[in-house]
Specification:
The protein contains no helices and 4 strands. A hairpin with a 6-residue loop joins strand 3 and strand 4. The structure holds zinc ion (ZN). The site of zinc ion has 8 residues, from loops.
Length: about 80
């Protein structure tokens, strides 16, 4: 199960919670005041955001045909 971060809207207490993905966006109970805590969207992405589903280590837009980043050779784009 993935870990999610939550912050209490009442006392600002931050905590982490192991939850199934299906419950990730549901409000969690604050361990301190037992009010509703909202999920923090972490800046680091441990999960794919569903954009293409592939990670590109170069960070560029490599051509799927020729495999280079410049794509001058195949001119597909
Ligand atoms: Zn709280």
């Amino acid at each position: 199960m993935p870990i999610y971060e939550y912050v209490c809207s009442d006392c600002d207490y931050k905590f982490e919670l192991l939850r199934p993905l299906s419950q990730a966006d549901e409000a969690a109970d604050c361990p301190q005041c037992h009010k509703k805590a909202k999920r923090i969207l972490s800046s680091f992405a441990s999960f794919s955001k569903g954009e293409g589903g592939q990670t590109n280590p170069l960070g560029g837009s490599s051509c799927t045909s020729c495999g280079t980043t410049s794509c001058d050779s195949c001119n597909l784009f």
